[in-house]
Amino acid sequence: MSKNARLVSEVFNPLINPIVTFLVLAMDDPAQPTAKIFLNWAVAIAFASGLIFLYIAYLKQKRVIESTELVIREQRISPLTFAVLSYALGFGVLTLLNAPWLMRGLMFCYATNTMVVLMITRRWKISIHTTGIAGPLVALTYQFGWMLLPLYILIPIVGLSRVKMHRHTPLQVVAGGILGVAMTIVQLYYFR
């Protein structure tokens, strides 16, 4: 396994991506007071990263899963189910806080995209990493425009890292990327 592939996989981990993405989205509204920006971001990362990470760590400690990387397809079901619930609750809280529409929209997309990934995962191991980089890229493109298009090269880079690590087949990483881009584009278009 290549050190570079592992590094890419860790840097663009599906639980790391929301931390950066929601920070950028929260800070892009200068009319918001700093405390409100921080609150929106803290809520978003709690539900999109923190709680899910803690749940996966708990499952690992209890030996329900072999690895926090969720290598075994069948061991992804419980964490994905928990993630759907966490994202849905996060969407509800962000809505109550009247967070910017794109933060709420992305959290909604996380919930629905993950639900689809969960359904697929019951039969096939689709790449959560490529889905997890594609969705945030679409949200950031809605916010900042087409100038972010070159960043979409991250999808095949992340996908290649997963293939090189023998975590997925090329088809699984392509399917994850397509799912993440297509579903997020459609949902955010109608969400606004």
What does this protein structure show overall?
The structure is a single chain. The protein has about 190 residues and is mainly alpha-helical. It has helices spanning about 5-10, 15-25, 35-60, 75-95, 100-120, 130-145, 155-165, 170-190. It has one domain. It contains eight helices and no strands. The radius of gyration is 16 Å and the shape is globular.
Concise summary:
This protein is an all-alpha fold and about 190 residues long. The protein has helices spanning about 5-10, 15-25, 35-60, 75-95, 100-120, 130-145, 155-165, 170-190.
What labels describe this entry?
mainly alpha, 192 residues
Largest sheet, in brief, is: none
Mean pLDDT: 96
C-alpha Rg, in Å?
16 Å
Uncertain ranges = none
How many structurally independent domains?
Answer: 1
Structural class: mainly alpha
How much helicity do the residues have?
A: over 70%
| Total beta strand runs | 0
In one word, what is the shape? globular
What is the rounded distance between the termini? 42 Å
SSE ordering? HHHHHHHH
Strand content: under 5%
Question: What is the overall number of helices?
Answer: 8
